[in-house]
Amino acid sequence: MVEITDVVCSLCGCVCDDIVVEVEDNKVTKVKKGACAVGKSKLMGHGRIEEPAIRENGNLKDCSYDEAIKKAAEILAASRRPLLYGWSSTVCEADKVGVELAEEIGAVIDNTASVCHGPSVLAIQDVGLPSCTLGEVKNRADLIIYWGANPAAAHANHMKRYSYISKGYWTEEGKKNKKLVVVDVRRTPTAKMADVFLQIEQGKDYLVFSALRALLYGYDDVVPEEVGGISKKDLLETVKMMKEAKFGIIFFGMGVTHTRGRHNNIVNAIETTRAAHTHTKFSIMPMRGHYNVAGINQVCTWETGFPFAVDLSRGYAWYNPGEISATDLLIRRECDAALIIASDPGAHFPGESIRHLSKIPVIQIDPFPNPTTEFADVVIPAAISGVEAEGNVYRMDNIPIRLRKLVDTEYLADEEIMKSILEEVRAIKEKEGE
Amino acid sequence: MEELIEGEEKMQTIRLKIKEEVTNGAAKIPVEVDSLTPDKLAGKTEAEIKAVKVWWGNKEENTGDLFDVSVEGEAGSAEEVKIVLEGDLSRVKRIGDGMKAGEIEALGDVDMHCGAMMSGGKITVKGNADCWAGREMHGGELVIEGDAGDNLCAMYRGEMTGMTGGKVVVGGNAGECIAQNMAGGEIVIKGNVDILTGLNMKGGKITIEGDAVMPGADMTGGEITVKGKVLDMMPSFRLEGTESIESEEYKKYTGDLAMTEKKAKGVLYVK
Amino acid sequence: MAEGELLIRNGVVYDPINGVKGEKKDICIRDGKVVEEVKNPKVIDAEGRVVMPGGVDIHSHIAGAKVNAGRLFRPEDGRKGVKARTKVCRSESGYSVPNTFATGYRYARMGYTFVMEAAMPPLAARHTHEEMVDIPILDNAALPLIDNNWMTMEYVKSGDMDLLAAYIAWMMKATKGYGVKVVNPGGTEAWAWAKNCDLNDEVPYFDVTPAEIVKNLAVANEKFEMPHSIHVHGNMLGHPGNYEVTTSTYDLVKGIKPYRDRPAMHATHTQFHAYGGTRWGDFESKAGAIADYINKNEHVSIDLGSIILGDTTTMTADGPMEYSLYQITGRKWTNHDVELETGSGITPFLYSGKSPVNTIQWAIGQELALLVKDPWKLALTTDHPNAGPFIGYPIIISMLMSKRRRDESAEDMHKVIFDRAEYSSIDREYDLNEIAIITRGMAAKTLGLHEHGKGHLGVGADGDVAVYDMSPEETDAGKIQKAFLNTKYTIKGGEVVVKDGEVVATPAGKTYFVTPECDDKLTDEMLVKLKDKFEHYYSVNFNNYPVQDAYVPNPYEIKAPWRS
Question: What's the fold here for domain A118-286?
């Protein structure tokens, strides 16, 4: 038995890096410290894709890695509008090869941001993002606002490690001297902990942000008695707390990005942060979901200039979420082939998108079977990043951390699989005389 | 070339009918026709037009391989060129993208970016136009007889400025965030609009004959008139009084105060 | 590095480090290094053309967290400068914030082969390295930010210079960094509370002043044989009347004895620190006062931070400064404070010749170059992309070489240029030797890289050569600009990477880093304090903090022994 410390969790955007595990017979046998329940289960491992496989007459038939990779390359090389999608539950090293492959075959490359925090990125492109690292929040924040986010359920360690319950340099008494405000459409477990809970009407976030801004700038006279289900009195009290805080932070979740107003809700949340910043220190941060969704945005940006929804069909990048994003492309039936890596559109995409995916050749690369496996034509099993393979990831505050390898495996890492596909595609194109 | 009597107008009509096999596959891969504007085709023969490259997915194809091409008359300049697009145009993107002169008529629903960056000439869409029609338009005229999608006449991602000039008329409804960051020009929507019309607009004029949702958010200039109902009026506008427009009484608001008083120079008329 | 032999024949060579001032001369390269002679070489005919060592940029923001945040939030910049991939090159995008590939190609096309990334937030050092690996062709290094760190301020307060040195040593190794970077000392920590610091203000809660931070870092830095001095972006950047803060900052290192023949401080993007007046309304150039100081003293070197007119993306670890800029423009603004260490801000900015303030800023950058007498004391930079993108260097070069061009340009600027700047009264014109000094020789020497084969063409130097398509007699500013934008040839490690302005090969660059050698006992004592910081205040674990070797696949290590 070996004990491994400083293990980095490859589950959510918190990327906890203080985990201790025990390894015996090349298997993680115990998670001793640090991980939340879901993280624990990821580290311990569960049922996975055992063998590479190719679909024949409707059934997946086991094959060798070489055969699966060759088949994948043939599909991609022949495609007129291929989509390469996923990338947020793997490491940056694999993402880089993905961008290179996208350039090689004139593909659209998109990542799961387009169905989670893509709206946040669009908002940042309109107004920027006054933000900070999570340690800043831990050490300084005395006002924490969760808006459309429920960390008690979705990011179990967030409050403990970084925000409301954590202890830091100027916050050594933990939550005692902090205030927690929660804005949500329902009384979530997080809301139950709050000093102030603002129950907002579904789809009215945009209006409430604008009202807060008007109040932060001092135009109390124009704001009506009630906005989006929240009384002016409660809004004024919240504004007072914001102004009196020494360091305030808004964490927002998909409750704001995916309701009516979408990315403009985030624009307005950021504008609210800017308005608060005229009084005191104020920051804002999205609650990113997958452990490396921030990372694929980073890689895609430094390599193509743009974070997601990038069309490389002309050999240079054209970026336009809403047009180029995976769900839009699939609903519009634009793609004629797709490679899905480290994600599960089968479970998360709208029905129309999945209907089209089931009609075109689909290649899946993943350690685990999921609903996407049900219609994939080529299935390639991968090593589990953070357990069987190492590599770089970016936490939700864009801090790069290296995942550790804990045990050995026969499975290929995502990066190796991608490189083999790229080589195979190049060989096909060379043969065709390109 | 045949000599023409002075004063007689030359006119060339280029008909481009998309071939069925382009759009009837399992995948409907868009064709991008930014290379087929009057400016770029003026002076070309039918054979030359057939050889002009258009992008279809990740490959460049000859126009003649994707469209049935016929040319009538001749033209000395782009002003004398009319392009008529026919067939299933629902996957034809960038119609009239960047055009400076001449005319395009699209006989059916068109795909995204129709009339984007156009600075002159006229485009008529005899159907609906998908998102980003008239994006960053600087001049000319865009008529959409059916509905327009989201981001009509808006800016490109991250840009400060959307439409700066020209005129756009939509016969039906329009989608979300139309005229975002608009700085000039005029837009008339005969039907209803979805949320956030004129978001962050700085100049120009928008008339909504139907209903609007949260119009004028973050506006710092320009004018929006809503003749129907306003749903979810922004809570950060100041009521200045009433004014009569075309003998009807309208409430006049200024805003958006969420941008601070100094910048809140937008005007919103609501019935 | 390319194997085999290369002969660059009959060029007119400017190699200022070796005192070669425009001599017709052959350059011989074998296995990537300059040699005396070659036997069976591939020949490049440089007949009558200007030949220089590969360019060395002392200060440019090309990789890492804030550069990428700049790209990410400016798709409207990204779509400028898109270029499709070729058989050799990846796709390009961007103007002021080009993607990594375009960054490598564009520098190489200008004849540059080494670029210093000027600000690496230690906690995000892995990010800087990940991007540097993806920048083709260029050799590179990065300067970690060490000045607003709580560890630094606590040692400055307690006066433990040896322990401060031990901390610097550990941070260089942990970040694979090259030298100590200082950005708005104390002010960036204060910004975490939305405040700022002038040079002698007390940093909130830390009981030290920025002046003390700068001075002590300089002292601690010189405890090692560091190739580079401390690299300082001082307080009050961009504020009218800041030039006295600037010279007071220079004064701080007077009397500190550097380890070798270089100044004890490199003061960067000096244009932003050479402002007179009391507000924007009476804003004026104080380039003269700064140049005067530099002319009379030997303990400070500078780089220009010269303005390129047009739209750009400003980005710096100086959070409060970016906030002030955003308040002026109202444009988008990103801020990213980094726990226990530093911060950063980013906002787009348009430098317009119609604006009196921008006009004076534009004049100051060039005035500095023209008024500092000894070109070995200054390097050409635009603080890319802060004062403008690096692809504007050829514009500055042509301005410095042509009084006529400056006069013509001044006519297009706001008329304040004639009464609130010395600009039009300066007649000096740079020659090609001086251009070679400010674009390669000075930077290489100041960074100590000339001892590692950079910035010159002496025997043993790296085979990095730029062949410009111009005669040494050329006086037409337009032609000079064109020649410096796209080389006839750029050779990197003996391999032709650019030919006729096109990139033809994209070898990987090396990453240079410095390993200060510190006594174990001292390090252990320092680590007790540092580990406590990780235990209680950092949000990452101590053992996950240092940059792993995997991030530097092409390392070039420079050891810096403790000075006895």
Answer: Dimethylsulfoxide Reductase; domain 2 (3.40.228)
Residue C335 lies in a domain: yes
At A242-300, the pLDDT tens digits run 999 999 999 999 889 888 999 999 999 999 999 999 999 999 999 888 899 999 999 99
How confident is the model over A376-402, as a mean pLDDT?
Answer: 96
What sign does the dihedral C189-C195-C197-C203 (CA atoms) show? negative
**Residue in A closest to B23 by C-alpha:** A334
| A280 at C interface, C-beta within 8 A | yes
Rounded Cα–Cα distance for residues C327 and B263 (Å): 13
Domain ranges in chain A are 2-42, 49-115+291-431, 118-286
**Interface touch A316/C100, C-beta < 8 Å:** no
**Is B158 within 8 Å of C73 when comparing Cβ atoms?**
yes
C-alpha–C-alpha distance, residues C249 and C352, integer Å: 30
Contacts of B217 in chain A (CB under 8 A): 206, 210, 264, 268
The pLDDT of residue C168 is 98
Distance between C88 CA and the closest CA of chain A, angstroms: 12
**Residues C386 and C312: beta-carbon distance below 8 Å:** yes
Range of the domain at C307: 52-503
| Residue contact B238–A222, C-beta within 8 A | yes
Residue A118 one-letter amino acid: G
A303 touches chain C (CB under 8 A): yes
Whether A268 contacts A252, CB under 8 Å = no
Contact yes or no for A81 and B260 at CB 8 A: no
Can you tell me whether residue B47 is helix, strand or coil?
A: helix
Which stretches within C465-546 are classed as H helix? 477-485, 520-536
- Taking 70 as the pLDDT cut, the residues of chain B under it are 1-9
Residues of C in Cβ contact (< 8 Å) with B156: 75-76, 79
Tokens of C207: 């009981």
Residue A205 φ/ψ, nearest 5 degrees: -55, -45
The CA R_g of chain B, rounded to the nearest whole Å, is: 20
Range 292-331 of C in CB contact (< 8 A) with A = 323, 326
| Residue A326 contacts residue A353 (beta carbons within 8 Å) | yes
Q: Tell me the pLDDT band of A149, cut-offs 50, 70 and 90.
A: very high
Q: Where are the domains of chain B?
A: 11-105, 128-271
Backbone angles phi and psi of A113, in degrees to 5:
-55, -30
Q: B196 contacts in A (CB within 8 Å)?
A: 206, 261, 264
Which of C68, C82, C115 has the alpha carbon at shortest distance from C390?
Answer: C115
* Residue A305 to residue C94, Cβ atoms within 8 A: yes
Is residue C142 within 8 A of residue C132, CB to CB? The reply is yes
CB contact under 8 A, A319 and C79: yes
DSSP class of residue B62 equals E
C529-549, pLDDT tens digit by residue? Answer: 999 999 999 999 999 999 999
Query: Are A332 and B195 an interchain contact pair (Cβ–Cβ within 8 Å)?
Result: no
Q: How far is CA B188 from the centre of its chain?
A: 11
Residue B226 touches partner A, C-beta closer than 8 Å:
no
> Could you say which of A206, A321, A333 has the minimum Cβ distance to residue B28?
A333
Residue A125 pairs in a beta bridge with none
What's the farthest any 2 CA atoms get from each other in chain B? 66
List, as ranges, residues 71-90 from B with C-beta within 8 Å of A: none
- Topology (CATH) of A49-115+291-431: Rossmann fold (3.40.50)
Q: Which residues contact A425 (CB under 8 A, 6 or more apart)?
A: A73, A76, A77, A101, A104, A105
- In this complex, do C340 and A298 lie within 8 Å of one another by their Cβ atoms? no
Residue of chain B minimizing CA distance to A357: B27
Predicted confidence at residue B1, as pLDDT, reads 41
Instruction: Look at B156 and C76 and tell me if their CB atoms are within 8 Å.
Output: yes
Ramachandran category for residue C413: left, alpha or beta (phi over 0 → left; psi -120 to 50 → alpha): beta
